Amino acid sequence: MILKGDLMKTIRTSIIGFGAVGQGVAEVLLQKEKYLKNIGLDIKVVAIADSKGAALDPDGLDLLKVLSQKRARGKSKDKGTVGSEKLTGLEIIKNIDHELVIETTPTDIETGGVGLVNMRAAFEHGRDVVTSNKGPLALKYRELSGIASENGSRFKFEATVGGAMPIINLIRDVLAGNDIISIEGILNGTCNYILTRMMEEQASYEQMLAESQELNIAETDPTYDVEGIDVACKLVILANSIFGMDANYKDVDVTGITKITPESLMLAQDDGYVVKLIGEVKKDLIRVGPRLVPVGNPLAVGGTLNVASIQTDLAGTVTITGRGAGSIETASAIISDIIAIYR
Questions:
Q1: What's the fold here for domain 170-323?
Q2: Which of 9, 16, 213, 239 gets the most CB atoms within 10 Å of its CB?
Q3: How confident is the model at residue 1 (pLDDT cuts 50, 70, 90)?
């Protein structure tokens, strides 16, 4: 039964960044509208912005219409403009009355990019933020958390680390009361796919990178993934949010997968091991690099799967596996964060 009256909470929302993840959020809000209302949440998207324009409606945008227009324009000279309004995401955050900013602009680990500017402005205007954008958190987590706290804003970012695979909320909520000793695992599905296929086909890194790009698993420029940068950013977020550190990307010992050969994978297999790109964080260590993992170990997952093993003092070792990428998968983490804030 859909709740009515005082039991229904309306959350006026903006989606800033309307690429794959932002569109995934809109799709999931449409799919889960009835469920959300059943638990007392009316998520009303009043503004959506991409890099070239915006769509606005104080009574709530028709998300299906906006998605259709975005995709139609993406095939035309308009290059996917989301709407005819000339407002930027920052102007929407500052000037449009709403409670929640869903920040899904592209990651920039050098400066934090527009995402950092957007998050600062959202908190300064007392808005809550849910984000999938790793860059600002990898660079300025402590600052952002401080501004949020000062302004009474909520700040959730599960989607920045494990995508659909919950790590941060699992630790903070389900494992509350446990001391976290370490977190290690595979946090990049692209690298895991390439290494898995190299072993299966006894093929070179270059061949399997090309295959992953053809399948849209790897980006056209795969540097962030294959050099370990993406995992390093995720480890920094875990280090700061779970272990209370004040780390940044430069504090991570980083090695990628570009130098791994089929021969080394076969030698490892002969000895009962697989080679995986493993990220690890604990109070005195943050590192990512290729490691030998015994076949049959919970960390020895294949394909595009992610996995995280969390060592605790009370619950022992808790291991979770799931998909860490994909627009709908990432959107699932964003929706989970929204429910956690407002339910």
A1: Dihydrodipicolinate Reductase; domain 2 (3.30.360)
A2: 16
A3: low
